[in-house]
Amino acid sequence: MKLVLLSLFCAVLGLLNAWPENPQRRRPWWNQLPRTIGARSVVESSSRIVGGVAVNITEFPYQISLSSASGSHMCGGSIIGSRWILTAGHCAFSSEKPLQQVRIGSTDRTSGGKVLRLDRVVQHPQYDSYAIDYDFALLELKQDLLFDESNQAVELPRQDEELADGSLCRVSGWGNTQNVQESSRYLRAADVPSVNQEQCATAYESFGGITERMLCAGYKEGGKDACQGDSGGPLVSGGKLVGVVSWGLGCAQPNYPGVYSRVASVRSWIEEITGI
Question: Which of 177, 167, 165, 163 lies closest to 51, judged by CA?
Fold first, then answer.
């Protein structure tokens, strides 16, 4: 048990040390600690696709689970080509010998589908762990995928392609849950509208703000959102991968929409690395 805890500590130490002083919340499985801001304690809500429903992987065949070498779920990700997956930069650091692995083609994040090894990880060179900017990483598989109904590549937007305010988006993932009726083993999803960039910037002004590499989605009244365990997962609108689950203040909180990494802002980089 001590060895397991020590390994876990070492694996996330770099991320813990890189946490910003403001309450910007990255959403991998390990980021569930409360933070104190002045006299105010900011605590995460229950960790799941909040306000979502159970879905089947055939409805989201681009969704993958990124796990540790031991097989423990860490983050989500999206298949973008027969050999490539896009996830969040805070989920995977650049490596020529990555230990992480991915599970594809399964609604259940603990079994089924296929578990594949990674050949390399390419984190965006401008990734900023403080501002959580350029929060992207590309995962190259050791072997090409054979697409079928349970694993397919999602379409990517054009470089700098705009997303209209209020566009309906769908976010999915295996975030943890404190509700026994909403098991974290099985894929869940929620529909959320994209939020005007200026309105989102105003909402997060006191907490470091947002950049042009970010977009926001959610309801003003809250209630639906991604959360811890969903990091790196897809935000899809009109059949295109428009965002990657990145951070937010709490989960599904009123007036604080989820913040996603804007895929269109790095489309040229994705093509440069992958040829896609």
Answer: 177
Q: Which amino acid is at 255?
A: N
What kind and span of H or E run contains 224? none
Tens digit of pLDDT for each residue in 31-73? 544 333 333 333 333 345 787 889 999 999 999 999 999 999 9
The whole-angstrom separation of Cα 229 and Cα 30 is: 8
Active site residues per annotation: 90, 135, 231
CA 15 – CA 231 distance, rounded (Å): 14
Cα–Cα distance for residue pair 91/73, rounded to 1 Å: 11
**Burial per residue of 47-72, b for 16 or more beta-carbon CB atoms within 10 angstroms, e otherwise:** bbbbbbeebebeebbbbbbbbeeeee
The answer to whether the beta carbons of residues 210 and 52 sit under 8 Å apart is no
90's tokens: 């805070």
